[in-house]
Design goal:
- The chain is α+β, with helices and mostly antiparallel strands and 375 residues long.
- It has three domains: 2-16 and 38-133, no CATH class; 146-278, Rossmann fold; 290-373, Alpha-Beta Plaits (2-Layer Sandwich), CATH 3.30.70.
- It contains eleven helices and 14 strands.
- Helix 1 crosses helix 3 and helix 5 packs across helix 8.
- The protein is globular and about 70 Å long.
- It starts with a helix and ends with a strand.
Length: 375
C-alpha cells in the first residue's frame, strides 16, 4: 500500500456589545482560525522511501524527498486547479524551511533502505507568504465536514457494506486534514439501490432526505465503486451533498493487470481532489475570482454599521473569515457601529466586490469606507 501511495503522489504532482465581550469573541475567532490552520497545513500519514549505501543515508534522503513531496501535496490542496501551472515557478523551493514539525507513525529499514509513514506540519504563515510572493492564489479556509459513505456494488448489482478494500482506502487517506474534511461511515442496512437511484435523478424524497436522516446531517455523500471485470474498468460515482452543494459525479478508471485495488486507490485520491476542487472554485468566486485573489494585499479601514450585537457578531465572523482577509482587527465599537481594519487583495475596491456577493454594500465616501448589509 505504501508504494502505491507514493505512485499516486508522484502522478498527481505531474496530473478558513461591549468592548470586553468583543475581545472574547475576537479571541474565539482567532483560536478557531489557528485550529483550522493546524489541519489545513498538516499532511498526515505520508509515505516515504529511499535506498542508499546505508540506512542512515537512506533515511536522510527519504525525509528530504518526503518534505518536498509533502509540500507539493499541500500546495495542490490549497491552490485552485486553474492556477496549478503557476506552481512550476516554485519547483526548486527548499521545503525544509517551511516545515514546523515531523512525527513518525511507523518506520522500517534494512541495511540500505528506509521506509516510513510521517506527519508533516507546515508553517501556515510561511506557506502563505511563499504563495503571495509568487502571485499564486490559494484557499485555506476549511469546509464544514461532510460524511462519506463508501459503497461497493457487487457483481449481482446489490449494495455491499464496504468493509473491505474500498473502505480501507478511504480511511487511509488524509481526509481529516483535507480542505473538504470527511468523516468515513459504514453503509447502513436500511440504504438500498432505490436511494442511489433517487440521488442520481435529484429526487430528494427518495435520495438526499433519506441519506440525511440515516446519517444525522445535511452533508452526506456516497462514494460508489463498481468493478466491471469483463471490461477491466472501475466506475466511481459520488452522489449527495457536500459543503459546496449537491454533487452527482462519476469517472471510469482502467484496471491494469487485474489490480482493482490500485484503480480504487487512484479513484479515491481523484475523488477527494474533486471535492476539494469544488470548494476552492466556490470560495474563489466568493472572493471575486482568481484575478482578484492575486492582486497585492492592501490595508483597508472600514466603518461597519449594524442594528444590534447579534448582527455585529455575525457580520464580524463573515467578514473576518472571508478568504483573502488578513490581519483583521477591531479598533473600536459602539452600539451601532464598529471601526475595523484588515488587509485584502485589491484593497477597499476588491473587498467591496467580494462582500457584494455576500449581500453587503460597501461604499467609499472620500476615502472613508462604510459597510452595511443590504435588505
Amino acid at each position: 500500500m505504501m508504494c502505491r501511495h507514493i505512485r499516486f503522489l508522484g502522478a498527481l504532482t505531474v496530473i478558513a456589545a461591549a468592548a470586553g465581550t468583543l475581545a472574547i469573541v475576537a479571541g474565539d475567532a482567532a483560536a478557531q482560525a489557528a485550529d483550522g490552520d493546524g489541519k489545513i497545513y498538516r499532511i498526515a500519514n505520508f509515505p516515504i522511501e529511499a535506498k542508499a549505501d546505508n540506512a542512515v543515508a537512506a533515511k536522510k534522503i527519504a525525509i528530504a524527498d518526503g518534505q518536498s513531496a509533502a509540500l507539493r501535496s499541500l500546495l495542490k490542496r490549497i491552490v485552485p486547479v486553474s492556477a496549478y501551472a503557476r506552481l512550476r515557478q516554485m519547483a526548486e523551493v527548499d521545503a525544509a524551511q517551511y516545515v514546523e514539525g515531523i512525527s513518525v507513525r511507523g518506520e522500517q529499514n534494512s541495511a540500505t533502505e528506509y521506509f516510513a509513514s510521517l506527519d508533516f506540519k507546515f508553517s501556515a504563515d510561511g506557506v502563505r507568504d511563499l504563495l503571495r510572493q509568487n502571485g499564486v492564489p490559494f484557499i485555506d479556509n476549511q469546509a464544514p465536514q461532510a460524511t462519506l459513505v463508501p459503497v461497493v456494488i457487487g457483481a449481482d448489482g446489490t449494495l455491499q457494506s464496504s468493509a473491505g478494500s474500498w473502505n480501507k482506502i478511504w480511511t487511509s487517506l488524509d481526509v481529516a486534514n483535507a480542505l473538504t474534511p470527511l468523516s468515513i461511515s459504514d453503509l447502513r442496512p436500511t440504504l438500498h439501490q432505490d436511494v442511489l437511484a433517487g440521488l442520481a435523478v435529484g429526487d430528494d424524497a427518495r435520495g438526499m432526505r433519506i441519506l440525511s436522516a440515516e446519517y444525522g446531517g445535511s452533508l452526506v455523500v456516497v462514494a460508489v465503486a463498481e468493478v466491471d471485470s469483463a471490461q477491466q474498468r472501475l466506475k466511481v460515482s459520488v452522489m449527495g451533498r457536500d459543503a459546496t452543494g449537491p454533487i452527482n459525479w462519476s469517472r471510469a478508471y482502467r484496471i491494469y493487470d487485474g489490480d482493482s485495488a490500485y484503480a480504487m486507490e487512484l479513484g479515491a485520491v481523484v475523488t477527494l481532489g474533486v471535492l476539494e476542487g469544488r470548494w476552492k472554485a466556490a470560495q474563489a468566486r466568493r472572493s471575486g475570482g482568481i484575478a482578484a485573489m492575486t492582486q497585492p494585499g492592501s490595508g483597508v479601514r472600514v466603518e461597519v454599521l449594524f442594528d444590534g450585537a447579534r448582527n455585529w457578531y455575525r457580520m464580524q465572523s463573515e467578514i473576518s473569515s472571508l478568504n483573502g482577509v488578513r490581519d483583521f482587527r477591531v479598533n473600536a465599537v459602539s452600539a451601532r457601529s464598529a471601526d475595523v481594519s484588515m488587509t485584502y487583495p485589491g484593497g477597499g475596491a476588491g473587498l467591496a466586490n467580494a462582500l457584494a456577493r455576500q449581500g453587503y454594500q460597501m461604499t467609499d465616501s472620500g476615502g472613508h469606507w462604510v459597510l452595511r448589509q443590504r435588505f
